[in-house]
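Protein: tRNA pseudouridine synthase A
Species: Raineya orbicola
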Amino acid sequence: MRYFIEISYKGTAYAGWQIQKNALSVQEVIEKALSVSLREPISIVGSGRTDTGVHALQQFAHFDYASPLSSQILKNWNALLPKDITICGLYQVSQKAHSRFDAISRTYQYRIVQNKNSFLQDLALYFPYKLNVEIIQEASRLLLNYEDFESFSKIKANTPHFKCKIYEAFWQVQKDLVSGKDVLVFQISANRFLWGMVRAIVGTLLEVGQGKMSLSDFEQIIQARNRSKASAAAPACGLYLASVKYPFILSST
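Structure follows.
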């Protein structure tokens, strides 16, 4: 039987999602907890990778297990996991279902605070510089006119192509639930993302918002298909995998 698990995590303490030889990853911690609970080695396949320090509000992974499982086991799994990782849901799916290849869209958010906030350390980028939100909103809309985003991909990315279909890209102000302060949030959804793409886009948009480059400059960077033309990537602490959607999981948000 094949199962999907829905996961959320704070990525600060981890060297990203994927298992690595000399660093602790989210995948490794979850696999160990499931293996202890189910009393056999369990390997999981994630819907995608997140880098060191990146968070997930909603991540999915799949694994195979011979016996029936119910959501009642989630309490046991979460008791075995550290406080910064939670398994939120369990879904039995078709044996052919794949957490990575069957996803029809993914949404990322990048969070910025412009006033120092002790409660959001490692959870948002502290960026105390003046930003023209109207300009970066306009620049974000330009992304929807293009499909090749090589300029925002890490140079060593192992990918057959750099094409992505972006469905939305916009900025909004949200209230932090703990402090009540404003958080500036960039949200972007697409059918796929390149390695380092969102952080590179945000880093470049922040240059636009400070008046260091124009809208025309930003569009020329997209057209250049050259990573060296874009700005440095924004820090990992503000990035979240916000949601992953599948046609067969109705509760996916």
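Remarks: Residues 105-243 form a domain with the Alpha-Beta Plaits fold (CATH 3.30.70.660).
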